[in-house]
Amino acid sequence: MACMKLGSKSDAFQRQGQAWFCTTGLPSDIIVEVEEMSFHLHKFPLLSRSGLMERLIAEVTDDGEEGCLIQLPDIPGGVKAFELVAKFCYGVKLELTASNVVYLRCAGEHLQMTEEYGEGNLISQAEVFLNQVVLRNWKDSIKALQTCENLLPHAEELHIVKRCIESLAVKACTDPNLFGWPMEHGAMQSPGGSVLWNGISTGARLRNSSSDWWYEDVSSLSLPLYKRLISAMESRGIKQETIAGSLTFYAKRVLPGLNRRHGVSESSNRIVSIVPTAVQSEEEQKHFLEEIDSLLPMQKGVVSTIFLFGLLRTAMILRASPSCMSNLERRIGMQLDQATLEDLLMPNFSYSMETLYNVECVQRILEHFLGFDQATGGASPCSVDDGQLMGSPSLTPITMVAKLIDGYLAEVAPDVNLKLPKFQSLAAAVPDYARPLDDGLYRAIDIYLKAHPWLADSDREQLCRLMDCQKLSLEACTHAAQNERLPLRVVVQVLFFEQLQLRTSIAGCFMVSENLEGSRPLRSGFPGSNEGGGWATAVKENQVLKVGMDNMRLRVSELEKECSSMRQEIQKLGRERSTWSSVSRKFGFKIKSQMCSAQEGSVSNQNNRNGKVEKLKDRPGKQKNNLSADE
Structure pTM? Predict the structure, then answer.
């Protein structure tokens, strides 16, 4: 820390209890009382430097009082400041530093210690040191601004607070290497570790030149001064990401609950050091959190989602204002696609404690996300091709959110206190086009049915209507077909759509096989062509396709067995044969005969084609072309 030496005389002040004495050999002729301390001094050194002391001493003398007693109850800085002022008046050696210059400047102004009462008086000396040394140094400016907190009325009148804030804002918005002292790692250092500039210690420490180098320093300021500093930085055009990083660091220093999960600052790789602060009441913490919320930029991606969830959880615990809670939920909703499942698992801090997790809050956040996605031109279900959504960059965030919500539903489903309407409402809030597959939703529904075995059949069917059986993968269909917790109607639909998928797959395999057989001979029939390797590859591909079709036939037969067993169970329940006929007509159980006939015809065609292809190896190109035409 830089300093400025004043005075040349040795210290002649001694303290005895609650009194200070000046041992100059002359008896004291004036007593100055400041708070609970008495200063036994001499009139001439005081009145020769201070206009106020000259006037007060004159008033006491005119009254004819024998003892000269003066009281200074309103002097800025109190006892500590007047002790330094008295030493300055006596010419005793003392040092001006960033820690005491504001006290001396305010006390000098109060005591009217101007140049009229002596050249190089306290006001002028303090101003020179403040402007030419303190305000040019980052650390000293921070220290001076901190001392202003106890002298705010006086420091504001003298514009000391404003000057310190402007100085800090300029430095924070500028490359630290251009502050006027070297900041790079190759700079010379004093034995104490501070940077040397032309052989003089600047008090600065070697620091990283990244944009977050000043976060830790300004986090030691009080909230009012910190807010003014942030406002000054914003007026100078500092990036919103930098402001958000500073607010995150500052909040973690004051709200210890934010550090329970994350100990590393998102803006840097440093560990956030928790400085011991005064114990704050819940009301003070709530006020602080609401102020931080008002300072955060309302832009997507500027503030980390993890930090916003931490603020929201803390706001729930502290019972913050509804507007603060709503703002935080809206901020999270704007960037919900950046959240994780762990972020969403917020405990329910309400007095009712109906559910373990706060499902209503997650639903409100989801609604904010959907509204923001729609307002910014998010994907809509208008572009559909054969049941599949066309690829679009804007579809990615909402697809990620849909997957996140399905995972959240699976986590909260085991809660026996979670009512069916809440579960349904959150699951139905996700648009259908946001889910390419309903496997995640099926898993959540299955977990909910397992944890709530007392649900009526009508409620089970109503719950299962949330998922689309056509959007289940083959693995999910296989599991659902054997799931005893699902309603019978849902199982039948799953079996039907699984058979439909297998039939489509088999038809696709036949089409691929026909294309391969129709294209390979045309390429290999030219004289002199070297297509032996291509033909061998085609034969291998046909063999692989045959194996795949055989596997599909086995799966179809298994499905038919499952259908027949289900038919027997339904007959055991006493249902009429007419009812089963209507059900079979409704869900397409006549596919068996159609599929078998189609498969047999396709296999025979495949064998005929393979035989013809074998004969083509020794036939000329013309005959081959005629064969192709016959085909």
Answer: 0.70
